[in-house]
Amino acid sequence: MIEAVGLTKRYGDKTAVYDLSFQVRPGAVTGFLGPNGSGKSTTMRMILGLDNPSAGHVTINGYPYRRLPNAARHVGALLDAKAVHGGRSARNHLLCLAQMSGIPARRVDEVLGVVGLHEVARKRSKGFSLGMGQRLGIAAALLGDPQVLLFDEPVNGLDPEGILWVRNLMKSLAAEGRTVFVSSHLMSEMALTADHLIVIGRGRLLADMSVKDFIAANSAGFARVRTPDTEPQAREKLSAALTEAGGHVLPEQDGALRVTGLPLPRISDIAHDNDVRLWELSPHQASLEEAYMRMTQSAVDYRSTTDQKAGLQQPLPPGALPPVPVPGQGQPGWYPPPPPQQGQPYAPAQAPAGTPAANPYAQPAGQPGQQAPQAPAAPAAPPANAPSADDLTKPEDAR
User: Fold this and answer.
1) What pLDDT shows up at residue 361?
2) 13, 59, 101, 227: which has the fewest C-beta neighbours closer than 10 Å?
3) Architecture of 222-294 per CATH?
């Protein structure tokens, strides 16, 4: 288990981490989230004894990292995938680490197979891609078969197969009772991987709870309601009825209604009582990304601005309309509504059972009374003064 108590780190007049206290328990994947510059990497460096805290302390299984006997056998970490001598092969890099920690050489070949680098084990690491470097860093973390593992952005540069592999690896390590601490900016991946979250902003603790509780505490579910597009009066009628019943109704760009404050059965009853047909009535829960953005929006240090394109703005072509601004976009607390859950609008229509599938490349059959297409005309004869092929004997003539 990792335990931080009152952890503080100052660099001159800048406080990177302030009074940070948390526990990372074994048997679960704990995600470590926060905006850029929030102190995540500094915290991980203090856990591993690479930086000394200005105040407070952090321990691993009750001991500071530097007091752990043969720490590489107890703690594995990936903080920088580029921390490798480029002239060494992947195998020699791991073999060097193994010899310093008293790990048998056969373990090197085992972890190379685990991370999928056995075929390039004897190639120099300077030619590795970013994803291959990440795999090599993960192999180094697994080398001593440690009970505590720390990973800083482990899926950077990995392809979809590699990301899935890392996700399953983290879960399997936690299922074995190990302590797994993962820092990442990919909210969608954290939602699938992490069981617990520790969120910091500007060096301070913002949240320490499960993923499910974090989403529930920082977002509100809503119902998406759609009436027939050909009946706009029904939409207005339902909107008024829902508002009268205590719901909060917001229109969406595609004509649907976003309703909060009323459960789905109550919305259905209100629509039935008012003789309003529904095309859609579906629940929606905010994603981890939306919940995270709501919590950390006041703790972001680096914000982008709108590109004014000074002197580069091109005039609109004749007949073109300017883009329509989205109401509320750009204002604090605004988030785009989820896309409508509709079928594929461009899917081909299904043919009745027993009907042979149409050939999409076949030419349309001629209708009765229509003239059949004419055969292509023979190519026109060349002009009388055109040179023959026998005359083109010199290169300059061929040109």
Assistant:
1) 42
2) 13
3) 2-Layer Sandwich (3.30)
